[in-house]
Design a protein that fits this description.
This protein is an alpha+beta fold. It has four helices and eight strands, in the order ββαβββαβββαα. The strands form two sheets. The chain has a six-stranded mixed beta sheet, with helices on both faces. α2 (88-98) runs antiparallel to α4 (155-171). The longest helix has 17 residues, at 155-171.
């Protein structure tokens, strides 16, 4: 099921300027970061790359990577989870992550394989658009955030979401 990662050398992270491993997956992450800045109007300082989320599911603990996280006006407005292959299999896990990262519901959740994307409403879980071009621009994100409730996530819901993340991201993946 899993495949090894071919390291092609090193590249410079577009957001942080740090030197990182050059892999096929990382090239797609960099493409997404460049799209946010060059085409969608975000500033690099509004984007956090590689955020590590600590997930506790019962007596199990793991760290899950959030590929890109956009913060506007002091609130996380959008997360982007990258993964190769099918988007539909990653949607529920990404939605769960959006409910754990900040203690409130992040309004926009993007799942992408680098070639395609699903844009999901954080509050409803519905796919609201498809394609990399439909990732919300900064003005669109500000409008969405202005109408978002940033609903608090209860402790009970957070526990359930953590179990979903753990099941999809940790138990369902191979460790390398």
């Amino acid at each position: 099921m899993g495949k090894g990662y071919l390291v092609l050398g090193e590249l410079t992270d577009y957001i942080t300027g740090e030197s990182i491993k050059d892999t096929h997956d990382e090239r797609y992450r960099q493409k997404l970061a460049r799209l946010l800045v060059n085409d969608k109007g975000y500033q690099k300082n509004e984007i956090k790359a590689g955020h590590q989320l600590l997930v506790n599911a019962g007596d199990k603990t793991a760290v899950v990577n959030i590929d890109l996280m956009v913060t506007l006006s002091g609130r996380i407005c959008m997360i982007i989870k990258y993964g190769p292959g099918s988007l539909v299999t990653r949607r529920r896990s990404a939605l769960a992550v959006s409910r754990l990262v900040a203690g409130y519901q992040v309004p926009v959740v993007v799942v992408s394989n680098g070639e395609d994307a699903e844009i999901v409403s954080g509050s409803t879980g519905d796919v609201i658009s498809h394609g990399l071009d439909s990732i919300p621009s900064k003005p669109e994100s500000l409008e969405i955030a202005g109408n978002a409730g940033f609903t608090s996530i209860s402790e009970k819901q957070a526990m359930m979401e953590a179990r979903i993340v753990y099941a999809f991201e940790i138990d369902g993946s191979c460790s390398i």
